[in-house]
């Protein structure tokens, strides 16, 4: 395996691309997914959030841990396709307060979301209180302000993947950004009254287990210090080829359900009263955990998302009453048994 810390971007891109499985077939006029879920409000209570997973051109950054490219297009997104995707989804979703338009990359990448479609997208979003889009820090700029103005009502929120505040790891992850780039983009957004959220990884490749908690704490603090209203914790998932290679070489240990639980508790302890920390529960069933406790523990995390505080570990339905120490041992065993030979 190449040294990802010293390799240039072209070599890191080649490493990532060379290990990918095939992408899924994608229809440019249909979203890859859509759903409504509940998110907490900073002042208490919840709001209904409609999420549309847009189909568009693949992100130009080849992040080492990303698997979102699987449902993207190989060429530029046709003009008019994204508004049609949003219209298709909204016609089939119940009423919601917030609209998330997640596009497996950057909303302000013109080859991904054509600028010519921004007005039509803004028109479709007018009934919502807030619209959340994703962006790489390098693409945060005047295009954000133009889209904010087109919304003419709903607040704009931009989600950026900080992933970790460890600069050396960011380079190895092939993020194409530094912590300073994230901070500059955040400063620009807050100066122009655009809301901000950050994505942080749980189970950071290349980072020793003993250092994971401290770097997560630093990453949460930097996110909030730079004005993020929401920090979302995302377990790093196998499945993109590169992470399987890192696991084989001993540079990545997939997070278990216990890792997510402990990370969420740590992040909640660092949360200012007017901010939110969310554990991303998508595909949580794939995380290593004892089968007898998994469902109850995932439900606990869902409640912690809602109430924004740590809650007691529920009794195991089978009566095994695992302690946290025992859960750690069982989770480690599950992870070892599922590792590739």
What do you see in this structure?
There is one protein chain. The chain has 341 residues and is of the alpha/beta class. The chain has one domain (9-287): Aldolase class I (TIM Barrel, Alpha-Beta Barrel), CATH 3.20.20. The chain is 37% helix and 16% strand. The chain contains eleven helices and eight strands. It has helices at residues 9-18, 81-90, 118-124, 142-151, 167-172, 179-191, 209-225, 242-248, 257-269, 291-307, 324-338, and strands at residues 33-40, 46-53, 98-102, 130-134, 155-163, 195-202, 230-235, 276-279. An eight-stranded mixed β-sheet has the order 1-2-3-4-5-6-7-8. The protein is globular.
Tally of alpha and pi helices: 11
CATH superfamily: Aldolase class I
The CATH class is identified as Alpha Beta
Strand content: 15-25%
Largest sheet: 8 strands, mixed
Shape: globular
| Class computed from helices, strands and strand pairing | alpha/beta
Largest beta sheet: what is the strand line-up? 1-2-3-4-5-6-7-8
Order of helices and strands: HEEHEHEHEHHEHEHHEHH
Number of strands: 8
- The poorly predicted ranges are 334-338
Helix content: 25-40%
What is the count of structural domains? 1
List the SSEs and their pairings:
Layout: H1 9-18, E1 33-40, E2 46-53, H2 81-90, E3 98-102, H3 118-124, E4 130-134, H4 142-151, E5 155-163, H5 167-172, H6 179-191, E6 195-202, H7 209-225, E7 230-235, H8 242-248, H9 257-269, E8 276-279, H10 291-307, H11 324-338
């Amino acid at each position: 395996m190449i040294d990802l810390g010293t390799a240039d971007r072209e070599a890191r891109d080649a490493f990532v691309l060379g290990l990918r499985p095939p992408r899924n077939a994608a229809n440019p006029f249909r979203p890859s997914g859509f759903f409504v879920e509940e998110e907490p409000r900073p002042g208490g209570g919840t709001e209904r959030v409609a999420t549309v997973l847009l189909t568009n051109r693949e992100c130009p950054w080849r992040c080492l841990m990303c698997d979102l490219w699987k449902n993207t297009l190989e060429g530029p997104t046709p003009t008019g396709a994204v508004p049609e995707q949003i219209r298709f989804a909204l016609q089939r979703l119940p009423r919601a307060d917030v609209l998330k338009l997640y596009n497996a990359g950057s909303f302000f990448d013109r080859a991904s979301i054509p600028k010519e479609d921004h007005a039509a997208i803004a028109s479709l979003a007018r009934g919502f209180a807030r619209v959340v889009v994703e962006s790489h820090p390098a693409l945060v700029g005047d295009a954000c302000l133009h889209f904010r103005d087109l919304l003419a009502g709903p607040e704009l929120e931009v989600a950026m993947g900080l992933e970790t505040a460890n600069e050396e790891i960011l380079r190895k992850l092939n993020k194409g950004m530094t912590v300073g780039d994230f901070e500059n983009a955040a400063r620009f957004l807050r100066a122009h009254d655009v809301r901000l959220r950050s994505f942080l990884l749980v189970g950071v490749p290349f980072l020793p287990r003993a250092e994971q908690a401290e770097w997560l704490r630093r990453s949460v603090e930097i996110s909030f210090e730079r004005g993020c209203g929401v920090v979302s914790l995302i377990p790093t998932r196998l499945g993109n080829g590169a992470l399987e290679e890192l696991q084989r070489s001993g540079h990545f240990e997939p997070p278990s359900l216990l890792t997510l639980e402990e990370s969420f508790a740590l992040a909640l302890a660092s949360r200012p009263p007017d901010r939110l920390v969310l554990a991303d529960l998508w595909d949580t069933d794939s995380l290593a955990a004892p089968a007898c406790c998994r469902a109850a523990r995932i439900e606990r995390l869902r409640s912690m998302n809602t109430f924004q505080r740590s809650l007691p570990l529920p009794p195991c339905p089978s009566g095994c009453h695992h302690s946290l120490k025992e859960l750690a041992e069982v989770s480690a065993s599950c992870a070892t048994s599922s590792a590739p030979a």
